[in-house]
Amino acid sequence: MEQSTAKPIRCRAAVSKAPGQPLEMVEVEVAPPRAHEVRVKIVCTSLCHTDLTFWRMKDFPAMYPSILGHEAVGVVESVGDHVEEVAPGDTVVPVFLPQCGGCADCLSPRSNICSALSYRPGLMPRDGTTRFSLAATGEPVHGFLSVSSFAEYTVVDVAHVVRLGGSALPPEKACLLSCGVSTGVGAAWKVAALEPGSTVAVFGMGTVGLAVAQGSKMRGAKRIIGVDLNPDKFEIGKRLGVTDFINPNDTGEKTVSQVIKEMTGGGVDYSFECIGSTSVMAEAFESSRTGWGKTIILGTDTAAAPVSISSSAIKRGRSVTGALLGGIKPKDDIPVLAQKCLDKELELDEFVTHRMGFDDINRAFDLLAQGKCLRCIIWMDGAEQKKAGA
């Protein structure tokens, strides 16, 4: 395999060395991009609950040491052989889900799960190696979700890179499109394809759930019911399209699904599970309408436990489906969402609750773990964070 003419780069990275322990800011060496790879200078990154989940995880697929982070925006620094769609200087969004553009799945409108590149935990998808090592010892450092954005530079397969071209979208907004917001909006648009006048229930009002609400509003939903244990989520939810709010602690002896059925006269047209709890997945299904109700599962249960749903209820017309990245094809659909942001159709300001510099990344983890933030934007140079007055 031919190598790029680029040289190794030494830079700072926040490395996870043990489950649940603070990330350590260390110097790493980032190898040049190989064929079909792109080296990216990260401008800003944000934290997603998936980062938090893997940061706490003791066993495989969590790997140590590793560089977490998968929601980011950056600038191409160099490219390997056979890379034609991006060039040094291009603004790009790295994504955990590849789109090779040539396999049967990428060519079909029915799937966004690329079948040409399989995910290899901690490693590059084509050759199963890593591009990171500790500068002091040479010890290999694992990647994460094919992105690893908690480093000043990272190497990403070109199938995992979305070029934004000449988009004037501010970096912190472009950053959000690489995972959470795209997942939620995409689920309402691509997976549910909900019709104007639809009724919707959203279980979990984090970033993904709130993005589902906004995507549902954009599609013309007439009633959007948000379900969350945190009453503080209702105010921001209302600004993004939520019309009703249910706190499971306030339903007395009734289940949430019973309350939703009473509110809607039989259940919602579309129910979205955005938490990753199998019991909530079952409750979301029970909240959907007999005959045509559709439940979309977006949350991830790390234990991969089965979901208990009545077979007779399935036979009465209700359906369940899941989706990665909200069913969107990254290279096709993220630029469309970026344009919707520029056209003020998609509002992202509400999702950014905190901004800070790279040195404060552990504080960002604390805020997310405590449920005190939606998205914390981490500026690698800290300059924009100061400019924002955070």
From TrEMBL:
Cleavable signal peptide: none
GO biological process: formaldehyde catabolic process
Domain called Alcohol dehydrogenase-like C-terminal: residue spans: 208-335
Residue span(s) of domain Alcohol dehydrogenase-like N-terminal: 35-164
GO molecular function: alcohol dehydrogenase (NAD+) activity; S-(hydroxymethyl)glutathione dehydrogenase [NAD(P)+] activity; zinc ion binding
Reaction catalysed by this enzyme: a secondary alcohol + NAD(+) = a ketone + NADH + H(+); a primary alcohol + NAD(+) = an aldehyde + NADH + H(+)
Cofactor(s) this protein requires: Zn(2+)
Superkingdom classification of source: Eukaryota
Subcellular location: Cytoplasm
UniProt KW keywords: Metal-binding, NAD, Oxidoreductase, Zinc
InterPro entries assigned: ADH-like_C, ADH-like_N, ADH_Zn_CS, GroES-like_sf, NAD(P)-bd_dom_sf
GO cellular component: cytosol
Protein family: Belongs to the zinc-containing alcohol dehydrogenase family. Class-III subfamily.
Subunit composition and interactions: Homodimer.
Protein name: Enoyl reductase (ER) domain-containing protein
Taxonomic placement: Eukaryota, Viridiplantae, Streptophyta, Embryophyta, Tracheophyta
